[in-house]
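Anyone up for a design puzzle?
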């Protein structure tokens, strides 16, 4: 008498297992997880508590984010990269010293064969100094070079060129120029800028050059 109910129970269990297995295979074939039971629309079936109905084949490997979001924590946002260090732009280098050259003809400064500055010569040098101070913010060096023509003995011309350069230097110092920045030399007749065979050429060769190197304003 009891054999028939036991047989029926066994048949029912096998049927349930078969249905679950078939459901799992069907879900997997449809691209769904074999760990859940799905309804006719393809959505995971849920129980009265709102939880997805799991099949015996369910494990963490086939869990879905829809049914078990706690198994799929959101990745932490990467920490922002530190801001790049500000680019420090080096200030431009100061402009190179600007040389300013003034050439004074000896006739405008001295009497013939003399090394004493004439009143007119002093005024010319004074004007040149004021002009230079207006153009340069500071002076680095002041080179004063005397020159002569080729008339007379070369030794005499050399000494005369030095004395004339020294006279210009001394007057600049008397006007307030810095003596430590002065460089004095005489070239005699060795560096002509014109033809010594003509009177006009010899006049140009008799000269004093004042070159100031400094920083332009």
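Challenge accepted. My sequence:
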């Amino acid at each position: 008498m009891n054999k028939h109910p036991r047989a029926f129970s066994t048949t029912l269990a096998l049927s349930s297992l078969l249905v679950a297995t078939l459901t799992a295979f069907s879900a997997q074939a449809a691209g769904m997880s074999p760990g859940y039971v799905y309804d006719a629309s393809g959505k995971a079936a849920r129980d009265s508590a709102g939880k997805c109905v799991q099949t015996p084949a369910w494990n963490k490997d086939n869990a879905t984010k829809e049914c078990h979001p706690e198994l799929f924590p959101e990745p932490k946002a990467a920490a922002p990269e530190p801001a790049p260090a500000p680019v420090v732009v080096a200030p431009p280098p100061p402009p190179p010293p600007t040389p300013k050259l003034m050439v004074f003809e000896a006739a405008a400064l001295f009497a013939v064969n003399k090394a004493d500055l004439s009143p007119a010569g002093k005024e010319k040098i004074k004007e040149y100094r004021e002009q230079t101070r207006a153009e340069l913010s500071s002076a680095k060096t002041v080179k004063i070079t005397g020159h002569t023509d080729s008339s007379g003995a070369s030794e005499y011309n050399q000494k005369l060129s030095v004395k004339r350069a020294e006279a210009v230097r001394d007057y600049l110092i008397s006007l307030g120029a810095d003596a430590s920045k002065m460089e004095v030399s005489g070239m005699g007749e060795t560096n002509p800028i014109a033809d010594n065979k003509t009177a006009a050429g010899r006049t140009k060769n008799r000269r004093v050059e004042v070159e100031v190197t400094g920083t332009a304003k």
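A detail worth pointing out: Residues 7 and 145 are 133 Å apart (CA to CA).
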